[in-house]
Amino acid sequence: MATLADYGPEVRAEVKQVREVVSTLHQQLIKWNLVVWTAGNVSQRLHTADLFVIKPSGVRYENLTPNSMVVVDLDGNVVDGTEAPSSDTASHAYIYRNMPDVYGVVHTHSTYATAWAATGQNIPCGLTMMGDEFGGPVPVGPFRLIGSEAIGEGVVETLKKYPKSPAVLMQNHGPFTIGKDAEGAVKAAAMTEEVAHTMWAARQLGDIIEIDQADIDKLNDRYQNVYGQH
């Protein structure tokens, strides 16, 4: 089994940098009220090797450091780290193997998004910000048990049907989000919880007015290609 010492200095330098990024981003999950206790995880894939960095399993967020992050290969085998990796590692690995443009994955149990997942419902696209970020509804994926790559399979098969969405609500489990890096996936997780909460509140007031897909497409194109700094 390969270890980090078997990789060159460029890879080891990127591992050091990504460990720092992933460790810091876990604190953002706490800041945005997306996780409790030890639930949830962030990972980021390397550009210099088929490896990614992920949170250790069952370690409290206040105890996470860059050195406690675990380096694994795209089959989920540990390459470097003193702790066991997250119980979702196999699913993260499956997503990276099957979605080569994805370099960040996040899983949370954030309250309102998980409530939609518990009822097996897509979050309907009733906000312009949903058109911007998700290109439509936030979809629900199938029920899958934890501990293998089955959840990752469900994430990938769902996103093939909703290619503009960076988020999936895995039924009875919670949201998984993707990005071009881990920060992008964390942003998607925060946005998912925000729209889940707002759409839940809207439903208490009455029927949600869903936006036409043609207008959603215009919103999404502007947000992805014009909005912000380039």
From TrEMBL:
Keywords in alphabetical order: Metal-binding, Zinc
Catalytic activity: L-ribulose 5-phosphate = D-xylulose 5-phosphate
Single GO cellular component term: cytosol
CC cofactor: Zn(2+)
GO terms assigned for molecular function: aldehyde-lyase activity; L-ribulose-phosphate 4-epimerase activity; metal ion binding
Source superkingdom: Bacteria
A Pfam family the protein falls into: Aldolase_II
Enzyme Commission number(s) of this protein: 5.1.3.4
Domain Class II aldolase/adducin N-terminal: 20-200
Claim: Amino-acid biosynthesis is one of the keywords in the record: no
One GO-annotated biological process of the protein: pentose catabolic process
NCBIfam families (UniProt xref): PRK06557.1
Assigned protein family: Belongs to the aldolase class II family. AraD/FucA subfamily.
Stated name of the protein: L-ribulose-5-phosphate 4-epimerase
